[in-house]
Design brief:
Elements (H helix, E strand, L loop, with lengths): L2 E2 H8 L3 H9 L7 E2 L5 E3 L1 H15 L4 H8 L5 H32 L3 H12 L2 H15 L7 H7 L11 H14 L2 H21 L6 H19 L7 H17 L6 H13 L3 H14 L8 H14 L1
Antiparallel strand pairs: 1-3, 2-3
Length: 308
């Protein structure tokens, strides 16, 4: 087969200029030239030009195509690596689209948009680094704190096709972990928790303390739902029972001093934004969601203060 450069262009759908360029850089050398200097191609040249065009359509760069043609890289290996890159690009585009929708829903300001976009465009490794930076700040003074491993084990992992709720949670989490006030608040809670454990040899993971906490959720939660006023006699009776459970767990005696200490403890470790942090982690990771417990503890704190 004797093919002119014009015919080659028509057969491959490329421009004459592009065919000439591929020939000049050695991707599809012509078979010969006429006496007048016109390029002529054969079947092999046509096959090579068609392969180059196909690989370019698939997004391969010319240096990679050259490696394939020169057999320094197999086509299957190159195709596999390119497919992986496309998968990553699709994921990034999907996430970017979802973030744009989240921005449209939330009406975020300029700073929020920048933070949202940076966090959303981060690779999985970069997102993990952002979270590790947050945890590094929080546990800077207590790297061996038992809660450090618990929080690291619960780092968020966006699924391949996140829902709108997961994207919204991802974006909100980005703002939360980047907020200096929130970071310092969690750091304070970690430090106070470590001090309490060292001084009293107890923690909120002790069974007796957990039973007391469950009783707060059950009894105080029911009272709050029923509309019982924190300053009422009915609330005072509930407080007496609940304080007794906490005092027994801490090996303390119920009294004014202990009640003041318990108020401090509950106020220190009750925080809407910290609860929201765990709620966002759960949404992103697809965990079952339970009701907010912060209002219940706020009711109990108010009732405890009123009864003391």
């Amino acid at each position: 087969m004797d093919i002119s450069i014009g015919q080659m262009a028509r057969l491959t759908g490329l421009s004459v200029k592009t065919v000439r360029y591929y020939s000049d850089i050695g991707l599809a050398p012509e078979a010969e030239r006429t006496a007048s200097g016109y390029r002529r191609y054969d079947e092999d040249g046509l096959a090579r030009i068609e392969l180059v065009r196909t690989l370019r359509d698939l997004g391969f760069d010319l240096s990679t195509i050259r490696r394939v043609l020169e057999r320094t890289a197999s086509l299957s290996e190159v195709a596999s690596a390119h497919a992986d890159a496309i998968d990553l690009h699709i994921r990034q585009l999907t996430l970017r689209r979802a973030v744009l929708r989240a921005i449209a829903r939330s009406g975020a300001g300029h700073q929020e948009v920048q933070r949202m976009t940076a966090f959303a465009n981060a690779s999985a490794g970069e997102a993990r680094r952002i979270m590790e930076d947050f945890l590094g700040h929080v546990f800077a003074e207590h790297p061996d704190d038992p809660f450090a491993s618990r929080m690291r084990a619960a780092l968020p992992e966006l699924p391949e096709e996140p829902s709108d709720a997961q994207i919204d949670a991802w974006v909100e989490l980005a703002g939360l972990v980047g907020d200096p006030e929130f970071r310092d608040r969690v750091r304070q809670m970690v430090s106070e928790g470590a001090r309490v454990r060292n001084e009293r040899d107890i923690s909120d993971t002790d069974e007796a303390t957990q039973r007391a906490g469950a009783a707060v959720v059950g009894r105080a939660g029911a009272a709050m739902t029923a509309g019982v006023a924190p300053a009422s006699a009915e609330a005072a009776a509930i407080v007496d029972d609940l304080v007794g459970l906490f005092a027994a767990a801490a090996d303390r005696t119920d009294g004014a001093a202990y009640r003041a200490e318990l108020v401090w403890y509950l106020e220190t470790f009750t925080d809407e934004r910290v609860e929201r942090y765990w709620n966002l982690i759960g949404i992103i990771n697809g965990w079952p969601q339970g009701p907010s417990l912060t209002p219940v503890y706020r009711w109990f704190i108010a009732a405890l203060q009123a009864a003391s």
